[in-house]
Amino acid sequence: MRGFNFKYKDGGQVQDGVGLLISILLRYPEVCSVRYLREQHALKFQFLLYDSINIAGLPQNLLDALEVFHQLELRSMKICQVEGQQEEDFYRLTVTRDVESMNQTEVGLIVDLVKGSPSNELLYEEVELQEDELLFQEEVIAQVLEHLQNNELDKNFIAVRDEGRVFVYKN
């Protein structure tokens, strides 16, 4: 794998796990934010959708699809939560998954399922990456997820997208 060299504003080197959050947001602009939950050793993905009557079944459909995916992969999930919450004119979809049983294919599947939902009202920034950059980010996601399956980060982190940039915060 080519090395990636993400740095903090102060010049310090970004941990692999923080780089994972950055890579997920770079590769999948449909993801509004991604959070690492240290206590659960899990990732929490958030998506924003326009309010629509077609959204009601989305959390259960996504949960069912993830369960089938893991049955086909012959792996079990420790944490798999899919929740939807109405917020004024928007609908926030949250997917929480344990890192131990997750892989890059599943991250792509989650995004594709949300994008392909009947409501098709996903809010996201249009970002155009070259094919080789998309493949590179997928490779980074795959390798860092594999590394993190047996290693935890020492803090909670959240990465958010804002006007084409990715910001990472400790919390």
Strand content: 25-35%
How many independent structural domains? 1
Q: Output the structural class.
A: alpha+beta
Quick one: CATH class?
A: Alpha Beta
Largest sheet: 7 strands, antiparallel
Write a concise synopsis of the structure shown.
The chain is of the alpha+beta class and 171 residues long. It has helices spanning 16-27, 58-72, 104-115, 131-148, and strands spanning 33-37, 42-50, 80-87, 90-98, 122-123, 157-162, 165-170.
Structural summary, described in words:
- The chain has 171 residues and is an alpha+beta fold.
- The chain has helices at residues 16-27, 58-72, 104-115, 131-148; strands at residues 33-37, 42-50, 80-87, 90-98, 122-123, 157-162, 165-170.
- Strands 1, 2, 3, 4, 5, 6 and 7 form a seven-stranded antiparallel sheet that branches.
- Helix 1 packs antiparallel against helix 4 and helix 2 (58-72) runs antiparallel to helix 3.
- It starts with 15 loop residues before the first helix and ends with a strand.
Supply database-style keywords.
single chain, 171 residues, alpha+beta, Alpha-Beta Plaits, 7-stranded antiparallel β-sheet, 26% strand, globular
Secondary-structure blueprint of this entry?
Elements lengths: L15 H12 L5 E5 L4 E9 L7 H15 L7 E8 L2 E9 L5 H12 L6 E2 L7 H18 L8 E6 L2 E6 L1
Antiparallel strand pairs: 1-2, 1-6, 2-4, 2-5, 3-4, 6-7
